[in-house]
Request: fold
Amino acid sequence: MTLPSVFATAGGSPQLLGDIGPYNYVPTEWICILFLVLYSISTVLHLGQALKFKLWWMLPTATFAGLLEILGWSARFWSSQNPDLLTPYEMQLVGTIIAPTPLVAANFIILGKIINQVGPQYSRLTPKLYTIIFCCFDVICLIVQAFGGATAARAVSQGTDANDGREYYARRNCRPALSIYRTIELAGGWFGPVITTERYFDWLDGAMVTLAIYTLNFFHPGIWLNKNDPNAHAPQRVADEEASI
Reply:
């Protein structure tokens, strides 16, 4: 189904029928490919790093976030080839909204590990409590975002306004920058000045999440969290001692 047919069915404004697809612009092909390549590289790296350091919790967090971003940007690339289709627009809407949530969950787990390594005596809560509390809030946030994304996608398909979806976006309290952007994005409805400007999305969503996910690649917990752990390099020390005998 195309956007003009949706508005024609829903009784939308006649002036919208000639607009270019649900974005009100055609996603730039090379930008979609660029982000697809960047997220694919990061996701493969996260998968390899999780397996190498045996940090299995990095699979449903950072690695899964990368997969969701790949899904979202694949849908935007699809839209660059078929700008009138609603299906890829709805896919990218849900994918790019949900993707940062498991990435933040990884940070919560890392926080607990850091506290455990530095010393629980320096924290008001135990490392386990930090992980449980913040990850529970993150799961709630994920559910709220999924519902908000679905509501927003349904609003697009029915040609209605974005009020319900915007209310759910406003509750995304774990990522202030993205929360502010998403809330402002929908403040003017589906055809406001922010949501219909591609560069805002590319810089304030795509680039910010790319920076966050690559930061975890370069400062991976598998390397830095074990660096000062007295037990982390015990097998290597034993092997060195045996080799010196």
User: Anything to note?
Assistant: The CA atoms of residues 114 and 225 lie 7 Å apart. The chain has a mean pLDDT of 78. The two ends are 74 Å apart (CA to CA). The chain is about 70% helix and 0% strand.
